[in-house]
Structure formats: structure tokens, C-alpha cells
Amino acid sequence: xxxxHYARESNVGAIRGGRTVLIPGAFAYHRPADLAEAVALLGxxxxxxxxxxxxxxxxxxxxxxxxxxxxxxxxxGIAELKGARLEGSxxxxxAMTTQHEIIGDDLLAQRVPILRETAELIADPQVRYVGxxxxxxxxxxxxxxxxxxxxxxxxxxxxxxxxxxxRVAARGYYRSTYETAAEPDxxxxxxxxxxxxxxxxxxxxxxxxxxxxxxxxxAAAILTVSGGRIATCAIGxxxxxxxxxxxxxxxxxxxxxxxxxxxxxRAAGAATAIAQPAADGRGSAEYRAKMAGVxxxxxxxxxxxxxxx
Length: 309
Ligand SMILES: Cc1cc2nc3c(=O)[nH]c(=O)nc-3n(C[C@H](O)[C@H](O)[C@H](O)COP(=O)(O)OP(=O)(O)OC[C@H]3O[C@@H](n4cnc5c(N)ncnc54)[C@H](O)[C@@H]3O)c2cc1C
Hints:
By secondary structure, this protein is α+β, with helices and mostly antiparallel strands. 35% of the residues lie in helices and 25% in strands.
């Protein structure tokens, strides 16, 4: 299924010379012990190197020869990239934390519960056991669920390269499909999320054809309520354009309202208006854009109910 995801969405056929190519090209394997060594290896092999985390996006691309790295740099042995912690008012999640670990983490469940709800909608347990949050957000695949969430949460990505460390807002990270603000010699070390206020509302709504599928359309909503009205709101959209989208107009449409029907309809319309999905096996472009609006309305309604309860 994943192979067809890449083959179809990249417009590169899995068929070469009349047969399906499913064996990666030759590569040398490296397993650095720490981040500094990983960065040094990246610098040494330059564009011929590729980082590997859980491998659940990269290996299928290598099997299709959409990625042909001469050197694979495995991040699995780097302890400093694992786990989640609270630092002041920010939640910091190491890039090599798996989706499975995110689901089971008590701190995240209490402070950023939308992470668990979203992670539970990614693929299946087998994928989630090894697929990492870093690989999910660094990949630049608009079908991945975490990037839109990170935009809604106003997260920052911590990148480590030969020149040191820099931070890039998730909202400015995604440039086009598989193209991000990261430099080739940079490793995504961690994700920093300003902890949403206690009592905030949250929901991730994902329309998919079946368990394990990428989204036909999905929406993440984070909001706060004061005096029965929405005080702040942010909405991110998954898989309805070449990049994840921040639906700023949709969020603005509900701020100051008690989420009445006209406000919900305005938000849904604003989300549909910015969606530019491709037609694929999940539906026509028009249908998927419409579903971006429907998912937005559902996410808002659930987030609002949670904030008020
Ligand atoms: C059957 C199946 C169904 C799936 N369904 C979904 C789904 O519904 N939703 C969803 O979101 N995902 C889905 N996935 C993808 C899965 O979540 C991946 O595991 C994830 O997207 C990538 O994480 P990874 O750790 O496997 O990364 P990898 O595959 O190892 O890497 C992906 C890319 O990110 C780069 N990278 C990895 N880590 C870093 C880092 N720390 N710094 C810089 N670059 C890095 C790699 O070089 C590579 O280019 C599915 C996968 C499969 C196999």
C-alpha cells in the first residue's frame, strides 16, 4: 500500500523495464553514537547520504529507487534524540521518539493530548512501533499527519548542523512536497511545543478509506474558550495540498464566536478555499477540498466541546 502511495503521488512509476523494482540500490550503513557524529557523517558524504530513523517512509522510497543514497546514517543509536520532557513552558520531544512512545507518554497525554489522538490515527501498531515523530515531520510528505498538527501547535523544529543549532518554526518549514527549510547537512534533533494552556480544546479529525491509509483530508484544531466564546484558535490541514497548511482564515472565522452554525460554515468554507489537493484514489480534487472543510468543522466542534467540558 505504501509503495503505491509513493509511486502514485510522485508520478514516478514503480515499473522499470517492464517489471516492478522493489530492491534498494547498494549503500554503506553507518550507525553514529551521538548527534555530533551524525552531523559529521552528513557533512562528509554530503548529498550522497541520507538519515534513516524508523525507515517506514525512506525504505519504501529506496525500494522504488525514488531515493538512492550511497550512505545511510542510522539515528537509532543516539540516546539524546529519544523521549519527551517539560522545559519551562515548552514540551520538548526528541526526534527519535516513536509514535508508539508518544501514545504511551503520560506527560504528553496530560499537556498535549492531541498528539496521542493523532498518533493513534497513523497507520497501524507495527508502523507506529518504529516510525518516529522526527521522520514524520522532517520527511516533507503532505500525507504525514504530524506536520499540520505541529503548525497548529506553533511548534519549533531544532536543527543541528555543522554550523551549530538553529530553530525553524513548523509554520515556515514546509516549502513544497519533500522540500523543507532544512539544509542537507542538518539533523532534526527535537521538536519544541509551547504547552497549550490547561483546559484548552483539541481535536484531530482524519477521513481515511480504511485503517492504515493516509488521509483523504484531515484537520487539527487547537483552541481556548473564555466566557463561552472562542478566544484563540489555530487549525492545520493534512494532505490537501503540496504541503501541510495553516488554515488561518478558518481559525479567524470562529474567534469571538460561540461556534454557532454560521461561524462553523464560514470556517469550513475558508478551509476548503485554501485546499489544493490532487485527484487520486481517495477522490477528486473537488471532493477532497470539500472534505478539508468538513474535517475542519468536525475538529472545531469536538475541540470546542472538550474546552467547555
Ligand atoms: C503502511 C504504512 C502506512 C503509513 N500510514 C501513515 C499515515 O497514515 N500517516 C502518517 O503520518 N504516516 C504514515 N506512514 C509513515 C510513517 O508514519 C513513517 O514512519 C513516518 O512518516 C516516517 O518516520 P520514520 O521514522 O519511519 O522515518 P524514515 O522513513 O526513516 O525517514 C523519513 C525521511 O525523513 C528523514 N529523517 C528521518 N529522521 C530525521 C531527522 N531526525 N532529521 C532529519 N531528517 C530525518 C529521512 O532522511 C527520510 O528522508 C505510514 C507508513 C507505512 C509503512
